[in-house]
Amino acid sequence: MPTFETPRKDLPVEYVTQLDAAIKRLHDEGRYRTFIDIERTRGHFPHATWHKPDGSDAPVTVWCGNDYLGMGQHPAVMSAMHEAIDATGAGSGGTRNISGTTIYHKRLESELADLHRKEAALLFTSAYIANDATLSTLPKLFPGLIIYSDALNHASMIEGVRRNGGAKRIFRHNDLAHLRELLAADDPAAPKLIAFESIYSMDGDFGPIAEICDLADEFGALTYIDEVHAVGMYGPRGAGVAERDGLLGRIDIINGTLAKAYGVMGGYIAASAKMCDAIRSYAPGFIFTTSLPPAVAAAAAASVAHLKTDQTLRDAHQTQARILKFRLKGLGLPMIDHGSHIVPLIVGDPVHTKKLSDMLLSDFGIYVQPINFPTVPRGTERLRFTPSPVHGPLEMDALIGALDKLWSRCALNRAELTG
Predict the structure, then answer these.
(1) What is the dihedral of CA 99, 255, 77, 111, to 10 degrees?
(2) Is the pLDDT of residue 6 over 80?
(3) For the whole model, what pTM was predicted?
(4) Cβ–Cβ < 8 Å for 112, 237
(5) Beta-bridge partner residues of 342
(6) Distance between CA atoms of 196 and 189, rounded to whole angstroms?
(7) Region of residue 410 (left: phi > 0; alpha: psi -120 to 50; beta: else)
(8) What angle do CA 333, 60, 361 make, to 5 degrees?
(9) Roughly how many angstroms between the first and final C-alpha of the chain, as a whole number?
(10) Residue percentage of the chain with pLDDT more than 70
(11) Which amino acids are annotated catalytic?
(12) For residue range 356-392, what is the model confidence (pLDDT) as tens digits?
């Protein structure tokens, strides 16, 4: 007869009380986050099935997904994944150093290095880990390194800079004068690195890449750019905003993701061969993590290869974003438009934002997740839409009609924001 361990007793009451208080604070502030259980259907995205809490199902249209181009359902991507899983099985079986490096991982890194015109690329399980692991490791490679980080950098960059134990300077968002002031105040001989993003995901604004590169040249700093919300979608081959602007050669380290425009999973850096070799040799976040499943790497490589040549899909994506912004402006809704594909609609109150999201889902079958503090500053709570080439006229009409009705029903402000 099998034996079983006695189930663990309940947590001591003082710990339960503290957990209850912590969760209650989120409810009171309108910031408690709930999972929406949806099931995508191959070939029908952005349409999906919502598995409701009461056990029933309802059709929904997803307007907040990160699969920006619908590549998660592309035949070439799925075919590559099927072939790899049939050939090798489900998992990688280990870390990259211990049995977890396959031809699929090497092929993907080669595709990524070629994409960004760099000597090498290094895979991670996510772009978050790639940022955190790389930025926290760099001071080990360059003793005395000072990192200059944009104030609105992603949490993964903030965490990597925070954990590295080195000196850091935070410059005001996209403020070149402040960045120059900070660079000029430090020892000219100290190694330096400027970390910033090409597209900031909450407002959809662009980083001043060329100007930051000019400052890096002037003060002898390395450049580190997060292109997570741009790879696959900008540039003639999808290498991001730096490629679009002809600046790839001026960036030392590029961070990107395989989980957004490429529709799969994983993250990476692209840089010189020596930089990638040093990071893989010193970064605990790389050394001690099981590598991506080979089938995931194969699918991602197929997606990257396809998007190097599919400008039609990129153009369709930008067209849909422009249409959505044009129609929202026509309603006088308070949206921010910085010219990127990200469409933030400002509500300005966490409770109202959550209610709007709930009503869109329950009354209109439209799923868009509320974005609240700490992801965005208090008072700027929003609904963030990510239109894609597979959001057609019918989906667009349904969304615009629903927002118009709800904005009037809730008596919300219709004064337009521009940036």
Answers:
(1) -70
(2) no
(3) 0.93
(4) no
(5) none
(6) 22
(7) alpha
(8) 50
(9) 68
(10) 96
(11) 260
(12) 999 999 999 999 999 988 888 889 999 999 999 999 9
